[in-house]
Write a structure and sequence with these properties.
- By secondary structure, the protein is an alpha/beta fold.
- The chain is 44% helix and 18% strand.
- It has a five-stranded parallel sheet with strand order 2-1-3-4-5, with helices on both faces.
- β1, α1 and β2 form a beta-alpha-beta unit.
- This is Response regulator.
- Pfam families: Response_reg.
- Keywords: Phosphoprotein.
Length: 157
């Protein structure tokens, strides 16, 4: 059975630890990886794809050294291998133009502004995970505990 990954990309270790700890309730079902740069994330994405596993979701900060979060998510959006991968931009420093680029060029699913509420982030992650699993045709029963039940019901109608 293929593994399902969620990648968290953030250059501030403390913020990255917070995101990972807020998503820890999912780690019985999915693998949560932490990356401190877009470059590290891209290397990990290649490893996961080469192993034949799934990248369900990337949660990225915007302002990071080297490549920005919008650039990372745009690259992912334009790579046909990851057409179903969901994307969240989690930032406090994106300009109006950055936000427009994130929507129009990276196809983000959610924009979350810092500081965020843990339950809001977790709800959005569960919703996107539900959409990803159904869209990929992955057997959803093993993930029922963490899926968005209302979204799942609507997708299965």
């Amino acid at each position: 059975m293929e593994k399902i990954y969620i990648l968290c990309v953030e250059d501030q270790r403390e913020v990255l630890n917070t995101i990972a700890s807020q998503l820890a309730v999912l780690d019985q079902h999915v693998i949560i990886e932490e990356c401190e740069s877009a470059q590290e994330a891209q290397e990990l994405i290649e490893e996961i794809d080469t192993a034949g596993d799934f990248i369900a979701l990337v949660i990225s900060d915007h302002v990071m050294p080297g490549k920005t979060g919008v650039e990372l998510l745009t690259d992912l959006y334009n790579d046909g291998r990851f057409g179903d991968t969901k994307k969240i931009l989690l930032t406090g420093q994106a300009t109006h133009m950055d936000t427009i680029k994130a929507i129009n060029q990276a196809g983000i699913d959610f924009y979350i502004e810092k500081p965020w509420k843990a339950e809001d982030l977790l709800q959005k992650v569960c919703t996107l995970l539900t959409i990803f699993i159904i869209k990929k045709g992955i057997e959803y029963e093993p993930f029922l505990e963490i899926l968005d039940k209302e979204k799942l019901f609507n997708l299965l109608k």
